[in-house]
Amino acid sequence: MNLTYSPAEIAFRAEVRGWMEANVPPARLPSFDASREGFEAHRAWERKLAEGRWGMVTWPETYGGRGLDLVRWLVFEEEYWRAGAPLRVNQNGIFLLGPTLMEFGTEEQKARFLPAMASGDEIWAQAWSEPQAGSDLAAVRSTARRDGDAYVLSGHKIWSSRAVFADWAFGLFRSEPGSERHRGLSLVFFPLDAPGVRVQPIAQIDGETGFAEIFLDEVRVPAFNRLGEEGQGWAISMATAGFERGLMLRSPARFQEAAKRLVALYRAHEADCPDGTRAAVMQAVMDADAYALSIYSTASRLMAGGTIGAEASTNKIFWSEMDIAMHRTALTILGARAELLAAAPAAGDAGRWLDGWFFSLAGPIYAGSNEIQKNIIAERMLGLPRG
Ligand SMILES: Cc1cc2nc3c(=O)[nH]c(=O)nc-3n(C[C@H](O)[C@H](O)[C@H](O)COP(=O)(O)OP(=O)(O)OC[C@H]3O[C@@H](n4cnc5c(N)ncnc54)[C@H](O)[C@@H]3O)c2cc1C
Fold first, then answer.
1. pTM
2. For position 308, what pLDDT does the model report?
3. What is the enclosing helix (H) or strand (E) of 215?
4. Which atom of ligand 1 is found nearest the CA of 135?
5. Closest Cα to atom 26, ligand 1: which residue?
6. Are 67 and 112 within 8 A, CB to CB?
7. Can you give the pLDDT at residue 340?
8. CATH 2.40.110.10 spans which residues of the chain?
9. Whole-angstrom Cα distance, residue 281 to residue 263?
10. How far from each other are the two terminal CA atoms of the chain, in whole angstroms?
11. What's domain 125-231's superfamily in CATH?
């Protein structure tokens, strides 16, 4: 692994920085989970990114990307977070489904779905979890019944992020009647406004509706919407989970920028901080940098033809625990001010830390709970017997 940037990478960084400086909205956009207005403001931002061909720089040009390598994606992310650009409303599409489609989709499916994903015209939700199938995803009971050149979808999905306002969802369904566990599952796409789909928002701890339940009652979609072979759904969803945990969902720049904000917060309140705060701030900076180095190493390995395996689980545990620790330190520094909601007139940056703290608490749960990641590490990396 070479830890210096090439002249071409340095020039690329300058190009991204220039574009971001000229285009990032000066004020924070309203939350994409709180209202349709906020969601559409983020969609408009996705369209602007796409106009500059910045939607997903690693994708081939034909699908709206720039055909660049993973190191340049990491550089792009560093500049994106440095500029304080909006959160990606289509993260389920571009970071999770996109790479999976690239690997398992037909040419027709890629041409149909990827450009609209890159442009923000179609925003995606992930519909895998069910009330009795969270950690134990192989317990999925929703069905995809084959009927000629169509599937008829029925069942109940839950915790589907962005589903309240999104356009499409990719779901995991039991396509072989009577099959059990990870056999007989298929990955099928469905429009969230199709007849028979009912989306029921779920209020979060912060009052926003970041996710939803989805009820499917005989929803008819063309067989074209199945990704990969019938019955291959488990293998495909595990590939998606690898992208999610191992690389794409949480780029290091997100945490490095949070660590910089934490240092600034500490400097502003140093005199009032309890003992141990300085060490916690330094730990945050070191952890964020260590995570970045580890991801650069993963990227180098992938660029040399390697794959992401069970070690994606170690990444997921690391970033989720780091995120909580950083926010806990920020709340300690803020003291009583930490309780100000973002909308409070005197909140300033405090409200943002509180929002971040709430969200960080979900980190050990989404993308597969940390307990499950520890099981994966124990069994597949350390070769320990099943518990
Ligand atoms: C913010 C957020 C966004 C999400 N977005 C989506 C989304 O877009 N799409 C989607 O499909 N899902 C989404 N989820 C759901 C998420 O994937 C599940 O919540 C997660 O997989 C855990 O499942 P569960 O909630 O059913 O908990 P359960 O599986 O019931 O687990 C409850 C507790 O038991 C522990 N546990 C369970 N089994 C074991 C075991 N074998 N060994 C040790 N401990 C165990 C778990 O770690 C957890 O602490 C989201 C969740 C959150 C919090």
1. 0.95
2. 81
3. strand 211-222
4. 29
5. 134
6. no
7. 87
8. 125-231
9. 6
10. 37
11. Butyryl-CoA Dehydrogenase, subunit A, domain 2 (2.40.110.10)
Q: For the chain (length 387 residues), average pLDDT per consecutive 10?
A: 89 98 95 96 98 94 95 97 97 94 97 96 98 96 98 98 98 96 97 98 88 97 98 94 80 97 97 96 98 93 87 92 98 93 83 92 95 94 88
Q: What tokens were used for 43?
A: 């969609």
Does ligand 1 lie within 6 Å of residue 135's CB atom?
Answer: yes
The H or E element that residue 293 is part of is helix 277-303
**Assigned token pair, 79:** 């500049």
Residue 146 belongs to what H/E stretch? strand 143-147
CATH 1.20.140.10 residue spans of the chain: 250-381
171 vs 192: CA distance, rounded Å? 11
How many residues appear in the chain?
A: 387
Query: What is the predicted pLDDT for the residue at 363?
Result: 96
User: Does 95 sit in the ligand 1 pocket, CB within 6 Å?
Assistant: no
Output the CATH code of domain 250-381.
1.20.140.10
